[in-house]
Amino acid sequence: MKRQGLLFLFITGEQGLSFYLYLFLSLVSCTFILLPYLFTISSSSHLYSFGVQNEGLVGNIDAKSPLCSTISNGRIWCDRSHFRSDICCLKGDIRTHSSSASIFLYSSKNSNGFINYVSSMVYDGEDQDDELQHERIKPYTRKWETSVMNTVDELDLISKRSKSGVHHPCDVVHNVPAVIFSTGGYTGNVYHDFNDGIMPLYITSQHFNRKVVFMILDYHNWWVIKYGDILSHLSDHPIIDFIGDDRTHCFTEAIAGLRIHDELTVDSLLLGSNKNIVDFRNLLDRAYWPRIKSLIQEGERDKVQYQVRKPKLVILSRNGSRAIINENMVVKTSEEIGFQVHVLKPERTTELAKIYESLNSSDVVVGVHGAALTHFLFMQPGSVLIQIIPLGTDWAAETYYGEPARKLGLKYIGYKIKGRESSLFDEYDKDDPVLRNPSSLTKKGWEYTKKIYLEDQTLRLDLARFRKRLVRAYGYVTGIHPSHCNFHLGNITQM
User: Fold this and answer.
1) Which of 461, 372, 369, 367 lies closest to 423 in space, CA to CA?
2) Residue 203 has what pLDDT?
3) Cα(435)–Cα(456) distance, integer angstroms
4) What is the DSSP code string of 331-380?
5) Number of C-alpha atoms within 13 angstroms, CB side, residue 458?
6) Does the pLDDT value for residue 318 go beyond 60?
7) 3-state secondary structure at position 312
8) FRET partner for 135 with CA separation of 20 to 30 A, picked from 94, 128, 262, 356?
9) Within-domain flag for 183
10) Residue 331 sits in which domain range?
């Protein structure tokens, strides 16, 4: 074998030139044979990869290009590289089939690219041999949580050869793209409604400038009603219940799944534009301002004008777990400092516009760590958010609310309670790790955090200690620092 190798290396003359020419042509031929396969492997990611762990570019898609804009006609492309969510794009002759929770993409036989909407009818029992590509996706943004993803409907994306012959036409033909997503999972919790749904929907669809149709799996009519003001500023078209609407809807472009950047965040770098969380909040302003005007006309005008004389402090009140037992004393202390205090208890049935009006007109908002703090998105940049941080919630408080609040332009103060301010102080020995070293328990898993620190804890604030934070906030929003407590306000967590 070694001698044959040496003879090969030293071939010269006309015989050598012929051999190398033959070898070169063989390699070129192989390249053209393999080339189609290199670009039809769906597991390869060709979409912009978005997220915390992988913020780079996958494939050759320009990071600044709108999602799916560079995908060729007749293709299904899926990006499964992100740990938070999958997302797929389809372009061409696209048809929905609600009874099988499927979307079909048909190859067009027309050389001019015209899509014949009366052919290639979607029907049950189509021959699987005609399938060119088959993808499955659960269009919800908590991909890493297996337990909750098991409750989310799955969507089949199937590319097929176009058949000749005439079948029934599309029931509805749309001249704008579709975005398909789920309102299953944790929907119903306001934090998850915004973090897992509304904000990813904004990120995914904002470049369409409302010229887009939303189709929803795990459809809830109450969700559409509750967030209707926001949804109407993201789409000019009626929302479609994917499973409940048995008509065949036809599109030339569709996106299944949603992009998500981080907790309650819109990242301009990942979005490929100069839009950020402030732009999202401006959209909320536009969405709720008509209703806020009517609320003012109904009798809120006096309250709004009163804010000129006294800074407004809103307390997001809780019942049950993580409630402030001496909330009435917190109200009294705040009023003594000079605030006009409004206690707000958001319920699932509370009209969002009313919550928005209250927080949008506030100077300071105080709340205990929990889903209701998601409403900080309704506050104006430059106002102050004071988050009361119960034992065992340090990381979550900073990650879910502290950091996003600063990105929105709020002045953020985190108030970490001491052991004596927690009801757990009466249940455990003072040297117990529950009080002395909460992180030793929370690192064991979510169930420990949930059971001990989220469900079994109420708070009785040290008013003298908490008063200092209120004074700082008052000084910031008024420019007046009481002489007995002249502190400097900063974006820091108070120990």
Assistant:
1) 461
2) 97
3) 13
4) HHHHHHHT-EEEEE---TTS-HHHHHHHHHT-SEEEEESSGGGGGGGGSP
5) 12
6) yes
7) strand
8) 262
9) yes
10) 290-494
